[in-house]
Amino acid sequence: MYVWPCAVVLAQFLWNRRRELKNKTVLELGAGVSLPGVVASLLGSSVLLSDSAELPQCLKNCARSCHTNRLKVVQVVGLSWGHISPRLLSLPKVDLVLGSDVFYDPQDFESVLVTVSFLFQKNPLTQFWTTYQVRSSDWSLELLLSRWRMACELVPLGVFEADKPELAGSRLPGNHSIQMMVITPGDGSPDSVRIYSTLSGT
Predict the structure, then answer these.
(1) CA–CA gap between residue 35 and residue 199 (Å, rounded)
(2) What is residue 192's predicted lDDT score, i.e. its pLDDT?
(3) What is the separation of C-alpha 126 from the centre of its chain, rounded to a whole number of angstroms?
(4) Residue 22: HSE in the Cβ half-sphere, 13 Å Cα cutoff
(5) Residue 28 pairs with which residues in a beta bridge?
(6) Does domain 5-199 have CATH number 3.90.226.10?
(7) CB-CB contact of 10 with 100 (8 Å)
(8) How open is the CA angle 54-55-59, to the nearest 5 degrees?
(9) How far apart are CA 123 and CA 15, in angstroms?
(10) Quick check: 33 and 19 in contact, CB under 8 A?
(11) Helical H runs in 17-163?
(12) pLDDT value at position 136?
């Protein structure tokens, strides 16, 4: 199973904020190998791991990660971005949403935000902590964040000691350009998403 560079950076952010995770309910979107979710669980959170309901192998990877790390109380659920499914509707109250490199394909950007927007409506105090690998200066979330009335804060990697090519004894994130973002419910104004302009090269 492959661990993406973004996952290591997000896991480092969780470790830096570990005091905030105790007894929280955390949902990881597009979890795959689930490094951030596993770390959150080990730090005292009640964790739900999710990946596409249409990709059973991804769900198996989530379960395999739980087994490897001896996590017996982590739930694995199938959630497809952009679909308001019965499983999404039945989720418990969530304090925090995680996403590692979920903004991989521009065709999925809005679907991810549709799902996050629904979670924000059910859980107004929830935050979405996500890492993003910059692959093209032509890609931007700014208009979509405004459309879905979200605010975004870009967190400098140095703030949580992630501005290094190797973290936690691994060779990741390497030389990849990774951004750490905290997305919250907003009012859709330009000021609330302006900080995101660094990802689009403006």
Answers:
(1) 24
(2) 66
(3) 12
(4) 2
(5) 49, 98
(6) no
(7) yes
(8) 120
(9) 23
(10) no
(11) 35-42, 56-68, 86-89, 109-122, 142-147
(12) 83
Structural tokens at position 181? 């973002």
Distance, CA of 30 to CA of 16 (rounded, Å)? 22
**Which residue type does 120 have?**
F
pLDDT of res. 190: 65
Pairing of strands 46-51, 75-78: parallel
> Tens digit of pLDDT per residue, the chain (202 long)?
668 789 999 999 999 999 999 999 999 999 989 999 999 999 999 999 999 999 889 999 999 999 998 988 789 999 999 999 999 999 999 999 999 999 999 999 999 999 999 999 999 999 999 999 988 888 888 889 989 999 999 999 999 988 888 886 677 677 778 999 999 998 767 666 554 334 433 3
* Amino acid residing at 187: D
Domain residues of the chain, as ranges?
5-199
pTM score = 0.90
In which residue are the tokens 């996500």 written? 130
Cα–Cα distance for residue pair 93/48, rounded to 1 Å: 11
What single string gives the DSSP state of each residue in 154-178? Answer: EEPGGGGT--SSB-TTSS-BTT--E
Q: Which two tokens stand for residue 43?
A: 């730090």
- Whether cis (ω within 30° of 0) applies to the bond prior to 173 is yes
Query: For the chain, what's the residue count?
Result: 202
The residue type at 72: K
Question: How far apart are alpha carbons 20 and 2 in whole angstroms?
Answer: 28
